[in-house]
Specification:
about 725 residues, mainly beta, 6 helices
């Protein structure tokens, strides 16, 4: 017989083997939308909170004693510890969050996976699976009337997590390249020292563009050659060639004059072929597999006046690809030796009260867990007064409180934007659209001035001169191509948090503080309060402040208010408003300012009519600084059967840069049971707005994204 801790040790030792078997030899790419922890009042409550708010006997029956005589002989217990059949334990009492998945002692496995299909984004596959390896619930009753229920479980989880996101954008702008060709020479009688009076010299240096050195991307010369010096004596054979019609540039043995060629001296927007910029977008997402091995321990104790819960989670997460594997492994290995929480509760001579306050079980679930993180160690204690079994009592139900320490791994994102390539792509031949020039000597009325190194030479002061000047203006159709890449890389760093809450039948007050030990430590402190009034109002207000904020972890004040108006037994109208004010979110990536507001103010009306529902949400701009622009969202849903639901949305007004104008989905539940397999097909039209080009044309890319999701559990 292997006991619990022997089993846990065996599983721990073989964890790496399990991961190696279950992890594919490749990472599954995909697109994951980043959603932070919930700030909605409805999400601060358990789905089971519609149970009676006053009292409920939710503990297993203790009337029947176990038949094992060796256990009954323990003098410390009225009823010694023994295993309780799963069906006799209410899952409400064992429900808890495990890496953002709700589990209970009845959870055997949970699996969800989905595949996305899109044109501008690589097709992505995601999975998230939870498997219970071991679990049991023990109950006991001590001689001093302490009722105790121990729930322990061992779980393994696999999840696809983002690793690297790369968005490549290519702008193709039609332009006209304006080029220049300048050719000139100036020879006259020599006035330089050492020369003879009957000789002729050049009064410009020999400068020549190497036409084989034209840069193929920018169409500018990269090498200029000097072929002769100022004052060089012109040979007779060279002089004879120079006086031929047209620019000659000397001879092969004696090049003379300037021959400059610049095919791109400056572009003009548009060309003969197009006046509209094109844009291309390609997104690639790389993912890795995270495997987590977790041990869960929940201990409930109750006496005649109060009850306590001690909740402990030990987790060890291995990433298939992890830049911080060394540090993360050391911290996780050490955390496995941290103790389980055993809550302290005094016994008495009075019989324990089975009406345990249900808020005691809600309080651990109301704790704030960091966004998209993995638990290494979580330890907390919840405490609440028991409810007096008096149905006519008007006294308020006491609140439960929960305080815990949480150690885990949280993602930190490194972002950058860089320009990969800039070049011109010719789409037509180079043509001469303007040419002018001439040549001549003393017999013609020509004035020419040459300035070289602050020396001035003029045809007025020289005799027997000969000048050649020719200019050509060039034009060529081309596309100006600019390729840039936005990259987002995630790494997981240790995160320590202290958090707690006071949970009552109508309200929840939470606090949280901690630090993320990334390259730049991020300290934070925050809290929120939600309340539900008897006349149908729901309110939430809170805020969090960061030291060293970035684009993901930043200071924010948030809140919402909701009022429900019952219209009939099958219909109600809900009006709500919400705001989110981002205080210090970083708006720069690679020193480039990105206009991506994070604040918002919205009003909503939601109508439920039996099987049909409709919702209208309007996001208001300019009321809160740096807020989202005007946006009107219309949503509709219908459930003709209990197992089938259709929904769609439409956004007639949207001034945001990246949006989804419309979409639809269908959800099919194979049967009407709690853990029935679910198949969902979703479609959304995506629109990426890159502003306007120089001609005022909108640069918009549209795409259709399809998602097929399947989930099953037991």
């Amino acid at each position: 017989m292997i006991n619990f801790w022997q089993f846990a040790t065996i599983v721990t030792l073989n964890f790496n083997v399990i991961i190696a078997i279950l992890t594919p030899a490749y990472s599954t790419p995909g697109l994951v939308e980043f959603s932070k922890w919930s700030t909605s009042a409805k999400d601060l409550k358990s789905p089971l909170q519609n149970l009676t708010s006053k009292s409920r006997a939710i503990v297993p029956s203790l009337n029947k004693k176990p038949k094992n005589s060796t256990i009954l002989s323990d003098p410390n217990y009225i009823i010694p510890p023994h295993i309780v059949p799963d069906e006799l334990v209410d899952p409400f009492t064992t429900t808890l969050p495990l890496n953002n998945i709700r589990i209970s002692h009845l959870t055997e496995f949970l699996f969800s996976g989905y595949q996305t299909f899109a044109h501008t984004t690589n097709n992505d596959t995601f999975l998230k699976a939870t498997l219970k390896l071991y679990g049991r619930v023990l109950k006991s009753l001590t001689h001093d009337n302490i009722y105790r229920v121990d729930h322990k479980g061992i779980y393994i989880q696999l999840e696809t997590v983002p690793l690297d996101r790369k968005v490549s954008t290519t702008r193709i702008a039609p332009q006209t390249l304006i080029g220049l060709e300048m050719q000139l020479s100036f020879i006259a009688s020599c006035l330089f020292p050492g020369s003879l009076n009957d000789q002729q010299c050049t009064y410009t240096p020999g400068v020549l563009t190497d036409r084989n050195s034209i840069d193929p991307k920018y169409f500018v010369p990269t090498r200029i050659l000097q072929t002769s010096q100022l004052g060089e004596v012109v040979k007779p054979e060279t002089l004879a060639v120079m006086k031929r019609p047209g620019f000659q540039g000397g001879t092969r043995s004696q090049p003379i004059g300037l021959d400059l060629y610049v095919p791109n001296s400056g572009p003009l927007p548009g060309n003969d072929e197009s006046q509209k910029t094109k844009i291309k977008r390609e997104e690639k997402n790389d993912y890795t597999i995270a495997g987590t091995f977790s041990r869960v321990s929940q201990i409930l104790k109750a006496n005649d006046t109060e009850a306590v819960i001690g909740l402990t989670i030990h987790g060890f997460t291995v990433f298939f690809d992890d830049e911080n594997r060394g540090l993360n492994t050391v911290i996780q290995a050490g955390a496995q030796f941290l103790p389980d929480v055993i809550p302290d509760l005094k016994g008495s001579e009075n019989t324990f009260n089975g009406n345990v306050n249900k808020d005691l079980f809600l309080a651990p679930n109301n704790t704030r867990l960091p966004w998209r993180s993995f638990t290494i160690y979580s330890a907390g204690v919840a405490r609440a007064k028991n409810v007096i079994p008096d149905a006519t009592s008007s006294r308020p139900v006491p609140k439960a409180d929960y305080h815990s320490i949480w150690l885990g791994l949280s993602p930190v994102f490194d972002r950058n934007i860089k320009t990969d390539r800039i070049f011109w792509d010719p789409t037509g031949p180079q043509v001469v659209f303007k040419r002018a020039g001439g040549e001549g000597g003393s017999e013609r009325n020509i004035e020419f001035l040459s300035l070289v190194n602050q020396d001035e030479f003029s045809t007025i002061d020289l005799h027997d001169f000969y000048v050649q000047i020719y200019m050509s203006f060039l034009r060529q159709n081309a596309n100006y191509v600019q390729e840039s890449t936005y990259r987002e890389k995630s790494s997981y760093y240790p995160h320590l948090s202290f958090t707690g809450n006071w949970t009552g039948p109508q309200d929840v007050l939470r606090y949280y503080t901690g630090v993320i030990a990334s390259e730049t430590f991020k300290f934070y402190l925050g809290g929120d309060y939600s309340i539900k009034t008897v006349n149908g109002w729901n309110f939430l207000a809170g805020g969090i402040g960061y030291i060293n904020p970035d684009r993901d972890y930043y200071s924010v004040i948030f809140g919402n208010a909701t009022k429900t108006f019952p219209m009939s037994n099958n219909a109600n109208l809900r009006l709500s408003t919400l705001f989110n004010y981002a205080i210090d979110r970083d708006n720069k990536i690679s020193e480039i300012t990105i206009d991506e507001p994070a604040s918002q103010l919205a009003i909503n009306a939601h109508l439920d009519l039996r099987v049909f529902s409709a919702s209208v949400t309007y996001f208001l701009e300019k009321i809160i600084d740096d807020s989202l622009e005007d946006r009107l969202l219309l949503e509709f849903a219908i459930s003709p059967l209990k197992t089938v639901a259709f929904s769609c949305y439409f956004v007639p007004i949207d001034r945001t840069s990246n949006s989804s104008p419309y979409g639809a989905s269908v959800i099919w539940k194979l049967n009407n049971k709690d853990n029935s397999p679910v198949l969902s097909v979703n479609w959304e039209n995506k629109k990426y707005n890159y502003g306007d080009d120089v001609f005022g044309n909108e640069l918009i890319i549209t795409d259709n994204m399809f998602t097929v999701l399947f989930s099953i559990g037991k």
